[in-house]
Amino acid sequence: MSDGTDAEDDGATRDATGVRPPPERSLARDGQLALLLEVTGTPKPGNVDRAHDHDDLRFEHFVTGAVGALPGLRLAAGSDGERDGDDRANVGNAFERAVAGMSQQAGGNTQFGALLAVVPLVRAAADGDLSPAGVEAVATATTVEDAADFYRAFEHVDVAVEDPPDGMEPLDVRRGAAAVPALRERGLTLFDVMERSADRDGLAREWVGGFERSFHAADRLRDTEGPVPDRAARVFLELLADEPDTFVAVNHGEATAERVTAQAADALDGERDPWALADELVAEGVNPGTTADLVAAGLFVALRRGLEL
Amino acid sequence: MSDGTDAEDDGATRDATGVRPPPERSLARDGQLALLLEVTGTPKPGNVDRAHDHDDLRFEHFVTGAVGALPGLRLAAGSDGERDGDDRANVGNAFERAVAGMSQQAGGNTQFGALLAVVPLVRAAADGDLSPAGVEAVATATTVEDAADFYRAFEHVDVAVEDPPDGMEPLDVRRGAAAVPALRERGLTLFDVMERSADRDGLAREWVGGFERSFHAADRLRDTEGPVPDRAARVFLELLADEPDTFVAVNHGEATAERVTAQAADALDGERDPWALADELVAEGVNPGTTADLVAAGLFVALRRGLEL
User: From residue B103, how far is each of B100, B148, B155 by CA, in Å?
Assistant: First the structure.
C-alpha cells in the first residue's frame, strides 16, 4: 500500500529497467470474467448471449451487471492480492452486495443466479480450497445472518421463483427483508434455506451437493477445445441436455423444461440446429437461466484451474 | 473499513430492515464499463465488436483485457468510493499497470489506445474536473517519470506505431524501457512526448488538445437515442467520417485512411451498408482502432455525465 500520495505503485517489484510484471488475476476479477464469458458464449439457446437479445433484457445489461457486481465479489474474496484486503464479508453479505451492484441497470435480473453460484466458489478459493469439499465447507458454515442477507438481496431485483411449499409461506423469498424475522425465529441458516429448495431449484441443489454440476462444467470447459466462448456454448448444451432447467420449470412448467432438454440433446447430436433452436426459444420467451448460471460457475472454477484466453 | 474479520460490510448504511443501497458506480469501474461497451457496439466497421472477430484477436480478448485493466484504472482513480483508496498513482504509472493487466490474454494489443485516452480522463474525474480544462491540467502536469512509465508500457504488448521523425530514434516507443535513459537526458515529460506525436497520432492529439474529440463523442453519445451499444456504433461512424483514422494511416498508409473515412461517410449517409463495409474491412485487415479508442473515451465521459444503461 502507498502512503496516500501520488508516487507509489501497486507494490509489484520493478526490474533493472523499471518494468514490473503484470498484476495477478484476482479472485474477484476472475468471478467477473466468468460472468462476462458466460454471456459471450453463443448460441446458448433461449438466453441472452453475444448474438441474442431479449426485448428489454440485452447483452449490455449483462455487461453492466458484471461490472456492478465486482464490489460484492471483492467482499467474497477478501484479501486477494489487489489490496491489503481487510474487507472480507460474510458470504450472504457479499452476495447481497454483488446483487445490489448487479441490479444497477435497466434490464432487471441479469446474474442473480450466477452470483449465487459464483460467490461461494470465490469464497472457497479465497479459503484455499476450491473443491467440492471446500465449497461445501463454505455452504455449511453459513449462519442465520447469511440467510437474512440472502433474503435482502431480493429487495434489489425481481427474481422468478416458485411458490413456497406448505408452511413455508412466511419464508417466501419474494417477501425479501420482511421475511427476516421469520427466518430468525426458526433459526434457519442460508444452508438450511437452500436445503429446503433443493428439490425444485438447480442452484440450491448445487449449494447442498458440493456444486457437483459446476465442477463438472469446469472439467468439460477445460477438456473441450477452441475459443472459450464456444466451449461455454457447448457445455451449456451438454448441461441442458443432461437435466431439465429449473428456471424454465418455474416459468413455463415441467413439461416445457423437459421438452427443452430433449431439444438440447438433439442439438448436441446434430439433429437440430442450435442457432434455430436459439431463435425459437427466444421467440417463445423460454430462457434456461439456471443452466447458464452453472456455466458461469464452471467458468470461474476453470479460470482458477488454468483455462486460458 | 472492517476489522479484517468476517462480519463487516462495505460501509453502506442499512435501513430499518437491514437493506442497504447499491454500491455507487466507481470511476475505475466506469472506465472498465466504457471499454466493454465500446467493443459491444456493432457494426464498427473494421474493428472487433460484438458481431465481428479477427482471426487471432477476438471479442473475448477485449473482454479479458477490460477485466485485466481494472487495477490500473483503480490506480488512476485513487480514492473513488469503493475503499479508502490510499493507492493513487501517477498517471503514467496507472497507465502502465492498466496496460500490463490488459495484456494478459492471447489476443495481443486490445486496449492500449483506449487506456491511453481513458486513464487521464479517470484522473481528471478523480480530481473533480472532468472537462477539457481538467484533463488538460492532468496532461500538462505529467513528469519525466510519467513518460518513463509510458515507455515501459510498450514492454507488455506490441503496438503498431510509425517510425519516429529524424533525431527522435533514441525515443522510438518500440524501444520500450530501453529508451528511458534518453528520455531522462532530454527531460521530456509525458505531455512533451505526446506533443511530438500529435501531428501523426490521433490519441496524442487528444492529449495536447484537451481531449476535444473524446468530449465531442460523449456529447453525441448522450444526444443520440436507442441502446448504448447502437449509439457507440453510430458515433464511431461519425468520428470516422469526420477524420481519417491515424492507426489505419500507420498500418496501411494515408490513402487507405482517407478512403475509409469516405466509406464511413457513405455509410452514415445511407449510401453504403455499414455491415457490408464491416465485412470488407475485416477481410482487408483494416481496423480503425484510434477511432474506437475515442469512442471508449467518449463512453467514459458520457457514463460520468449520466448516460444510462
Answer: 5, 19, 10
Residue among A50, A67, A155 whose CB faces B29 most closely: A67
Burial of B21-50, coded b for 16+ CB within 10 Å and e otherwise, reads ebbebbbbbbbbbbbbbbbbbbbbbbbbbb
DSSP structure string for A163-207:
PPPTT-GGG-GGGGGGGHHHHHHHT--HHHHHHHHTTT-HHHHHH
A287–chain B Cβ distance below 8 A for any pair: no
Angstrom distance (rounded) from CA B69 to CA A203 = 31
Per-residue pLDDT of chain A (309 residues; tens, 9 = 90+): 333 333 334 567 888 888 999 988 899 999 999 999 999 999 999 999 999 999 899 999 999 999 999 999 999 998 654 444 457 889 999 999 999 999 999 999 999 999 999 999 999 999 999 999 999 999 999 999 999 999 999 999 998 888 887 888 999 999 999 999 999 999 999 999 999 999 999 999 999 999 999 999 999 999 999 999 999 999 999 999 999 999 999 999 999 999 999 999 999 999 999 999 999 999 999 999 999 999 999 999 999 999 999
Collapsing DSSP states into helix, strand and coil, what is residue A49?
strand
Rounded CA-CA distance B58/B47 in Å is 10
Phi (first) and psi of residue A185, to 5 degrees: -60, -40
ipTM of the complex: 0.94
Contact assessment for residue B300 and residue B30, using Cβ atoms and an 8 Å cutoff: yes
Maximum distance among all alpha carbons in chain A? 69
Give the three cell numbers for residue B218.
460523449
> Cα(B17)–Cα(A178) distance, rounded to whole angstroms?
7
Whether chain B has a CB inside 8 Å of the CB on A83: the answer is yes
Q: Would you tell me which residues 24-43 of chain A have a C-beta closer than 8 angstroms to some C-beta of chain B? A: 25-26, 29, 32-33, 36-37, 40
Cα–Cα distance measured from residue B159 to residue A295, given in angstroms and rounded to the nearest whole number: 34
CB of A156 within 8 Å of a chain B CB? The answer is yes
Angle subtended at Cα A71 by Cα A288 and Cα A125, rounded to the nearest 5 degrees: 75
